[in-house]
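hey m, so remember when u said the tokens were messed up on ur end? i reran from scratch. heres the input so u can diff it against urs
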Amino acid sequence: MVALTGVATPRAYAADDDRAQRSAAVLRELVPSPDGPGCAAAVGERGEVVWEAGRGKADLATGRAITSKTVFDMASNSKQFTADAVLLLAGRRQLSLDDPLSDFLDDPPAWTRKVTLGDLMRHTSGIPDYQDLLEAKGVEVTDPAGQPEAIAAVLASRPEGPPGKRFSYSNSNYVLLAHVVEKVTGKPFPAFLQQEFFTPLHLRMALSPAVDVPGKAKSYAEKDGSFTPDASPWKQYGDGSVQTTPGEMVRWADNYRTGRVGGPALLTAVTRGAVGVGDVLRGRGIEAGRYGAGMLLLPDNSLVHRGDWEQFHSTFKVSPDRNTAVTVVCNADSPDHFRAANRLLAIWTT
């Protein structure tokens, strides 16, 4: 069991400031009924939580409500920490984004000599998704599978196209990057994130795949109006598995303004070399953008990412000036969480 400690307190505002009320209305629209699964949301300004709330149930069996302190799996919104870990090591000259993947493998397949760490970070490696590879081998998401199984499946495959040519989102890229960090540092990846990011920034976060975290919401699949728990024993990391609250995510977002961890070099590297994604994310509400270090840079200079694992669905977004951030996360399918995040950001920036 992993315990998360420390709780942020929202800033107080003048009585005539209606932004909190307008934000609460967005959450009510997103979660019409408080009796089923729901969502939590938070807004941060320059590292301080200015509004946060939850609506719905974290646990249908016990009736436990979703609150601002409810913990969720942030799924692919965890990728930014993996990318920043790699950039941190690059800034220390312990690796380079131009290094081939083969440099960090004990028995590398020939194709890994042509895939760079930058290709992995920007999803231009052409490597197929390990989730598809495992399922093709008969390993379902309800079966036990961890980091070794995922990496073995990837290395037994081949890129589906020439590396460095085309954006193709694949969770395999970030599982491999976590492996690289472990190889370079000699430390377990969760411990590295704790040491370099979570502890220095006083963040109530943990990288804990398929582990019981106190206060965590349960994930629910819906069918014909009924909800059933949806949990997987898969234990991969690097591509997901950061456990935290929306409030802690918006506190973390201030590092994109301050560079407290990584300095100006890391902030520049987050978007340097970002590659166009074309229209492949249009179905997720993103018309255009360029993918950098675990984040998508939109045409207006805002940063955004989405996460989906089990039935945890989240949107994380940082304003163009990096002063304001919002996170919305739900414990059941919620098609409008991306739009809700955009509406919340508009409320607090206009």
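this time it looks ok to me. Residues 81-189 form a domain with the Beta-lactamase fold (CATH 3.40.710.10). if urs says something different then somethings off w ur setup not the seq
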